[in-house]
Specification:
The complex is a heterodimer of chains A (256) and B (429). Chain A is of the alpha/beta class. Chain A is built from twelve helices and five strands. A five-stranded parallel β-sheet of chain A has the order 2-1-3-4-5, with helices on both faces. The termini of chain A are far apart. Chain B is α+β, with helices and mostly antiparallel strands and 429 residues long. Chain B has a three-stranded antiparallel β-sheet, with helices on one face. In chain B, strands 6-7-8 form a three-stranded antiparallel β-sheet, with helices on one face. A three-stranded antiparallel β-sheet of chain B has the order 11-12-13. In chain B, a hairpin with a 2-residue loop joins strand 11 and strand 12. The longest helix of chain B is centred in the N-terminal third of the chain and has 32 residues. Chain B starts with a strand and ends in an 11-residue tail after the last helix. The chains are: A alpha/beta (256), B alpha+beta (429). The interface between A and B is large, with 57 and 66 residues.
Amino acid sequence: MAVWKFASCDGCQLTLLNCEDELLPIAGEVEIVYFREATRADGKGPYDLSLVDGSITTPRDAAAIQEIRKRSKYLVSIGACATAGGIQALRNFRDVKEFVSMVYATPAYINTLEKSTPIAAHVPVDYELRGCPINKNQLIEVIRAYLQGRKPVIPSHSVCIDCKRKGNICVMVAHGTPCLGPVTHTGCGVLCPSYNRGCYGCFGPMETPNTGSLSEGWRRLGTNEADLLRVFRNFNADAEAFRKESLRHEEKDHPG
Amino acid sequence: MKKKTIRVDHLARVEGEGALTVTIKDGQVVDAQLRIFEPPRFFEAFLRGRSFTEAADITSRICGICPVAYQMSAVHAMEDACGVKVDGSLRALRRLIYCGEWIESHVLHIYMLHAPDFLGYAGAIEMAKDHAGIVQRGLQIKKAGNAIISLMGGRSIHPINVRLGGFFKTPTKRELASLTDRLLWARDAAVETVRWAATLPFPDYERDYEFVALRHPDEYPFNEGRLVSNKGLDLSVREYDEHFEEEQVPHSNALHSKIRGRGGYFVGPMARYNLNFDRLSPLAQEAARAAGLGPACRNPFKGILIRGVEVVYAFDEALRIIAAYEAPEHPAVPVLPRPAVGYAATEAPRGTLYHRYRIDEQGTILDAKIVPPTSQNQKVMEDDLRRVVEKEIDLPQEKLTWRCEQTIRNYDPCISCSTHFLRLEIRRG
């Protein structure tokens, strides 16, 4: 197995080192031959499984991911950066001209790409594990699945469903707190509503979310267009469903 | 003329992407560079236009290892702008979550990133084949730190419970008390860690650094204090920009910080320790003395020991906070926006983390400045590289290369943290 990193906070690959009880057993089953955060070892591959953390933001990285794909039997992208461009994809909504002039104002950055893109925009990906950060148990399931030669079993329904299962009182219905739970991919363990806070969507959109309807609900709670824009334009801003919804609010915020 | 180059194209066991080059000509080091090629992520640019309530969640994404540090600097800076002071149990809980982060980050560094250098292993997983018990102990201590963050913040990477004015939800006395037994075990294991680390082979190397850290009237510093140095600096955090400046160097994607008119300086555990030894708990001081450390230490390779001492302190402090805790009436005090500039510096595991924000009457962020510890330490890291190579120039190439890597890992550099910036001003000759 190999673990790679591109533009990110390192949090998703750190998740593996945070498996305090499971790390050594995993290392007993899988030979970790490349994982720069953890070891000087420099295995050249080929790799049975590559875990990729981070988004592609430089020409050098765009070339590197091609090479990694060639040397990997399975390639799994982990976390919001690798699956949706991450928080640094906020640059993708900028005026390109403004962005380029910023780049040329500091020539050292000429090598920075205009957009931050997910791994799947560059190479075929076998599986995408969501989250900012990813969930440790889901990561272990992914590794186990590829060890056993099967697909990972990870639910793709909304946070809302797990919140009901957990028996939480709905923060949106009971307290009037805006919550992204109804449109957000589950996996965090319904943290925010359990702490009396609205979900902020760190796992990105669920399968077929109705973001327009949720925005309507937030409006009824008094949220304005500018705030709705910011809500969808966050850690998964360039995930398709959230991008489209945020663009709708951009138009309404600046009509004409 | 004999020329030799030491190159490490990809630094391992640090957070982020960096490389080293040291050039030697005729037995003299002519250049030492820590090259940071982690792609910039432009946080200060996209913070503009966001709400002041969002800064804590957004800036936590600068670093997965020290998200609490970013959250703490962000909320304190915004509260400074809005004229709010958070006190009592809420203040204590903020210290508690910071204890958790120091523990997990320091123990990760001690056992998984740094110890393998002293013992000659590529990493902790390789080291576990011969020293399973030691690595297991490290993992379990680290887990206790993560348990504090998870209880306080929901999860240990990018916790969700920190907000302006306090928290979204505060724990009950009983919930906090449920950590006590585990923390007592881990505190003992931390004392044992310092004892064990003291047996590692330390290169004989000392230097006269300028150490910079926060100093508080009666606490070991986390979230508050004056910025002081061992060479006469003593200022409020609001005066930071008057005394520190950042410059761009061609070989790094991270800015280098300097004290104006003076040059490089050293932040982090070693700086805190040298400036605040008297504020450590008696148990932490005792652990330090037993390891042969006095109130001052100038050997950066002993940073692993000092991190151990700070872990003992963090457990002690966490247990003290938990024992004294009374749940507050409200989980947060109100923070209302006003047009102002807010400043804060807190002590991230790797050192002082400075944030400055300008906000308008709605709380919209107009501009942001963030100076992480690794930017501040870059100059000192390069100076160390130069001197370590000069001192050990006769080592075989492979050993010297490893020693250079170890020299950088002394600092536990957080490279993702150091390259988040955007420089908007244009300098003209």
